[in-house]
Predict the structure.
Amino acid sequence: MKSNMRHGIFLAVLAAGLYALSTPFSKFLLDALPSTLMAGFLYVGAGLGMILISLIRKVSGKQGTESRLTRQDLPYTIAMVILDIAAPICLLLGLTMTTAANVSLLNNFEIVATAVIALVIFSEAISPRLWLGILFVTASCALLSFEDLSSLQFNSGSLFALLACICWGIENNCTRRLSSKDPLQIVMVKGICSGTGSIIIGFLCGERILHLWTIPAVLLLGFVAYGLSIYFYVYAQRILGAARTSAYYAVAPFIGVFLSLLIFREVPGLLFIAALILMIIGAWLSSQDKPLKITLPTGLKRVKTL
């Protein structure tokens, strides 16, 4: 059992490390490709990468025995695709309005959204320690959502980043419902359907491809930072559940911050450092979560221990 849990944690952290590449490199590529089109090509890159892996498996005779998606999975599959169209668009819009380091840290709000939805809607067990971690993450996100404490002026980029996290929080729970199925097929559906939808929306909104060289670059980034990341994330969810996988996945923003500071030399202020400390505490508490049976407030359904 412990070995299985360690394997799940490793997969969640590996997924986080791969996804962390997306924020700083997307920030760089946004100068040459509009945000909605980039979101679409990132997902298409993920889908095409998984198709390539599937073909290699087929040619080599190493086809797996994973279960395929069925008609009963359609509601969660459709929700997953729609939310995967909305979330990256919001995230990339946020990147155009604020720093890559700020967005990387705000990505941790996804823990909050995922955990609350997992508890209230899907009755997933969450311990008091994880709730305490969520409290610290929420405080950190609230701190980062203001340009400075003197004016308390809300940053539009932060708002879009938080909206992306809410979309992904719902999507994480939908994906959790599908995690017993073939992760390769899940990423294919996510990538091709969500990516195509985003690209169509981008063109309808008047966005255009400014430089052709950006397309292969974004597709490659999408394969690594989205495709492989989602692939390992689905496997981790199968072992750990939605809320706990999201908690371990919290290491991604810290890697993203490090890369952003390294690439763009964005020197953080005191407010950013204070938020970082709160985020580290929250992520550590979340990673120490243990399954525990708890009861929701009166009128809501009782949680079942996983």
